Amino acid sequence: MPYDPNKWRLLKTVKTSADGSYEAIVPSTETFNCPIPQGPCPGMYLVVVDDPGTKANPNTNFDPNLLTATTPTEAWPGLTTQLDTPVDPISGTGCDFSVSGPDTASTTPELLQVSRPYVLAGNAGTARQITIQGDFIGPAGPTGAAGGRVNLTDVRTGDVRTLTRAAGPPGPGGGIVSWTPGSGAVPDTIVIQVPALGNGGFRPGPKQLTIVGANSNGGQSSVNGITVHVLGSNGGVNYNPAVVNVPAPPPVGTNAHALQDAIDGATAGSLLVLSPGVYNENILMWKPLKIQGLGPGGIIGAHELNARAPEDPRFSIKGSVLDGRFFPQNATAFDTTVSNHAPYATDPTFNTILRGADITAVAKTAGAYNVTAPPGGGDGAAFGGARIDGLGLQTGRGDGAGGVQLQANINNMQITNNILENNGGVFGGGIGLGQPFAHLNHNFNVRIGNDRILGNGGLTTSGGIGIFYGSNNYDITQSIFCSNFGVEYGAGISHYGLSPGSAIHDNKIYYNDAVDSGAGISVQTELPRQANCNGGPNLPPPTLASCRGAGSGAVNIDRNLIQGNFSGDDGGGIFVSDAFTQPINIRNNMIVDNGAADMGGAITIDDTANARISNNTVANNVTTASTENSAVGVPHAAGLASEQNEPLFQATLPAGSPGFSNPTALFNDIFWNNDAMTLSQFGPGATLVDQGFIDFEVRGTTNNADTFTPRYSTLTNGQILGPDGVQRAVPGGQGNRIGEDPLFVTPFTLELAVSGSRLDPQAASVTITGQDPPVGLGGDYHLQTTSPAVDRGVRCSGTPFPAPANALAPCTTTNRGIGAPAGLPSAANATGGGDYDSQYRPQQRFFGPLRTRTPWDLGGDELPGTQVPLTPPLQ
């Protein structure tokens, strides 16, 4: 009989020795007299590496940091068969996001569980109270707004209601009934009183709950909070989804398919509230719903999900967790659910529903997930869209992504306040928006916010998140991407294909590892499956589209920390390829301590003629010249690098255009101490050789004078590496500060190690091995108050040097190019707005006769000073 993945039986479980070897004796055959010379038939088996076991008998030594891989093999009578079953990692470690050092208590609050995530319209008094169990909330501090507090942000309008311990409305005190730090095995607890509708303009709808520590304890905010659904009608706003309480999973409950049954029975738009516990299900979400957990749960004293066992597990708080590791047992039920509710709106060429993820979302019709404009305006998707919130999503193994897979037409989905950890898939680890080459699988206006994407891995195209063709206007914000692994591009975030109008902002992206390019962020075209780049006897003349695809579309990359990522090729921090003439804005980022095995330790841009790079801090990145295409002793730029344009792309540009990806704006940045290294040799015994600081490089063109023109920036040495391998000075007279230490608060230098490559042990490979502190985020690249980079930047990319008297006039009025980040961040602010910390830009600190014309601080940080008003428009 042919192999059926839904009908299988375990024959034997074996454990490896310390060196990874194992052996097993299995029956060679059950059938004789086969039509082959040997006579008996071979026995056919599937060998599963890192097998999670079954629900009834889970393997205790299952490692969620490794990929569960299945290898078919055969067994012959009297013959020993040798197998090569490598153990493939899908994640790393060290994802504590606290900035505290080892043995120092974290000051970043952690939400683990809430008593309930909603209040009903009829609730009053104590019935509107919610108990939060958490960790690291710190001391309560003062009773007012400087003390520990809880923010409820209206996702429709952005209005923030801050609950404090001060006397007054909206309930006992100022909304916080109690703030009680725990100790040892006792979690921290906060009890809040949700305001009554109409109190101070408080309207119904979803509210983003965020815990903020006391200012005296750092004033840090929780990353993943939870959505609190305030039901009722008030002020013309109506929000009354049906509430469905989902029974607990086994062993507390009795229904092994409790969540799927609740989904099947709920009306579209319902609010499904999960219980505490681990749902060992693989869910098909086939209608727009709000799947709401109580929080991801966790271990007291560890910023990690249940899948990670900390060294000192003091106490476990049960959250609402989906664990997809047992899909082989769930496959029959999943396939039955798919069949029962078919057909679905998909790309006809890719109509197979992807299997194996924790949650797979499908649409019955192309408009099933569309939303209507809410009363009074505002964000309709956040107010009325489908939502996945407050969950731990772990160890899914998907045909697409392993955590959450959006198949097609899942418009306006809100994926918020979740921890996705140790998920793996074919083309995405944590989250997949669509799939490669399915150009009719539109997933518009998806928001991914306040999530932690930790230790997920993809076999192709992406690691943490895979964003595929047709995911227009996606928004990825306020999230952490750590220790994700991509076999190809974009280990942290991979944008693969045409998805214009999108934004990646206010995230922390660190310790991600890509075998190819773009370990932190990759933005690129989707290359055609049968690319025609050269034509031929039976092919039409090649075009840019037939060779390189449709491009990436416009993307804004703003205010992100991109640190400690390493790629096996180009662009350790950011890799942009084939955006063509669409604008790629890279603004206000801290791109520090990343590495690339080839070029562009911080940023590589390729076939991208409209990159705008302004007010970024690009420091202490490295290149190692350790790829298969590298040469001994030949270094490449560790800061910003570019290559020769594809001829078909060059042919589309105006005559006289640069033959490489030359940024249309490169100003107000700090490029500092980006270190280029090479290997002493490529075989065993190789060591790293420091070739000095190289901030810039243009490679592959025929004009050795090709250069970037950085302006009003701090540069290490003012040199660029040309295509002939010779360093030359960048153009002078541009207002650059050369060789002037920007005086960061606490910069650090990466620790690197040379070892044998996993692909070829006889070839040398370089990895990041450590920093100080060894776990968590180290360093601080804000400016000291005495920094010479303060008040040295300009409003417009084309501002002459020295800055003229009208230097602060709008760039459109003076025809001076692209505007620097200005004002505060908002959807209407075309400059991106604010600094790395979302503080107003610019702020004046020095008032000399010329410094008033250059009030922007260089790099991502703007020090506090006097806010400088700017004449609109901001663009």
Write the layout of secondary structure elements.
Blueprint: E1 43-49, E2 69-75, E3 110-114, E4 118-119, E5 129-135, E6 149-154, E7 160-163, E8 176-180, E9 188-193, E10 205-212, E11 226-230, E12 232-234, E13 237-239, E14 243-245, H1 258-265, E15 271-273, E16 277-279, E17 283-285, E18 290-292, E19 298-299, E20 316-317, E21 320-323, H2 327-341, E22 359-361, H3 380-384, E23 387-389, E24 392-394, E25 397-398, E26 404-406, E27 414-416, E28 419-421, E29 424-425, E30 431-433, E31 447-449, E32 452-454, E33 457-458, E34 465-468, E35 475-477, E36 480-482, E37 485-486, E38 493-496, E39 502-505, E40 508-510, E41 513-514, E42 521-524, H4 544-548, E43 555-558, E44 561-563, E45 566-567, E46 574-580, E47 584-587, E48 590-592, E49 595-596, E50 603-608, E51 611-614, E52 617-619, E53 622-623, E54 640-643, H5 647-650, E55 665-667, E56 670-672, E57 675-679, E58 688-693, E59 696-699, E60 714-715, E61 719-721, E62 727-729, E63 737-738, E64 744-746, E65 751-756, E66 764-770, E67 780-783, H6 811-814, E68 843-844, E69 866-867
Parallel strand pairs: 4-11, 14-15, 15-18, 16-21, 17-22, 18-23, 21-24, 22-26, 23-27, 24-28, 25-29, 26-30, 27-31, 28-32, 29-33, 30-34, 31-35, 32-36, 33-37, 34-38, 35-39, 36-40, 37-41, 38-42, 39-43, 40-44, 41-45, 42-46, 43-47, 44-48, 45-49, 46-50, 47-51, 48-52, 49-53, 50-54, 51-55, 52-56, 53-57, 54-59, ...
Antiparallel strand pairs: 1-2, 3-5, 5-9, 6-7, 6-10, 8-9, 10-11, 12-13, 19-20, 57-58, 61-62, 64-67, 65-66, 68-69
